[in-house]
Amino acid sequence: MTDDKHTSGSGAPDPEEAPRVTDKRRIDPETGQLREPTPEEAVLAEAEQAAAAAEEEVVLEGLVEAQKLAAERLDDLQRAQAAHYNLEQQYNAYVKRSKAEALASHDRGVAAVAEALIPVLDDIELARQHGDLTGPFASIAEKLEGTLQRFGVERYGAAGEPFDPEVHEALMHAHSADVTEPTVQQVLQPGYRTPDRILRAARVAVVDPEG
C-alpha cells in the first residue's frame, strides 16, 4: 500500500510539510525576560494598530456626521415649531379681531335702529304722559320698548337727579334755593343709551343753587 505523505530519505516527515508554531507569549518562559518581537510580529502589531486607528477614525467621522445631522434636524424642528406658534398666534388674533368686529358691528346695528326709532319712542312717551297710551297701541308700545331693552337700549332721565352734561342736555335753566348742586328739575324728553354710547342725551330743565 502506497503512503501519499512525502517523507525524507530517513523516513521522517518533510520539514516543509511540518506544522509551524508561533510563540506569541511576551515573556520568554525559559529566561523570564520580555521577549523582543520578531519582525513578523512587529509587522503584524503595526498592522493591527493601523487597523484600529483607521476604525477609530471612521467611527469618529461617523459620529461627527451624525451630530451634524442631528443638529440640522433639531434646527429644522425648532423652525417648524416657531412657524406653528406664529401661525397659531395669528389665528388666535384673527379670531379675537373677528369676534370684536362682529360685536362692534352688532352694536352699531342696534344703535342705528334705536336712533331711527327715537321719534317713535318720543311719541309713545308723550302719549303715556297724556294718558292716551291705551288699547292695542299700548300693547305694541310695550313690545317695542321691551325688544329694545333686550338689545341693551335703555331709556333714562328723571327729575331730581344731578345734572351731568355728559348725559343731559339743558334746554331750560333756572335757580332755586332748594338745591345745593345743578339738578334736573324736569325731563322734557328722555335720553336713550346703550352700554357703550349715548344715542341721545336726555333733554331737561335744570336748576342751579341760588347765589
Main beta sheet strand tally, sense and closure: 3 strands, antiparallel
Task: Write down the Rg.
Answer: 54 Å
Terminal Cα span: 159 Å
Helix content: 40-55%
Q: What portion of the residues fall into strands of 2 or more residues?
A: 15-25%
Shape: rod-shaped
Summarize the model shown.
The chain has two helices and six strands, in the order H-H-E-E-E-E-E-E.
Task: Please describe what this structure looks like.
There is one protein chain. The protein is of the alpha+beta class. It contains two helices and six strands; from the N terminus they run H-H-E-E-E-E-E-E. A hairpin with a 4-residue loop joins strand 4 (191-193) and strand 5 (198-200). The chain starts with 38 loop residues before the first helix and ends with a strand.
Structural features:
211 residues; alpha+beta; three-stranded antiparallel sheet; rod-shaped
Task: Please give the structural blueprint.
Layout: H1 39-129, H2 135-150, E1 154-156, E2 168-176, E3 183-189, E4 191-193, E5 198-200, E6 202-209
Helix pairs in contact: 1-2
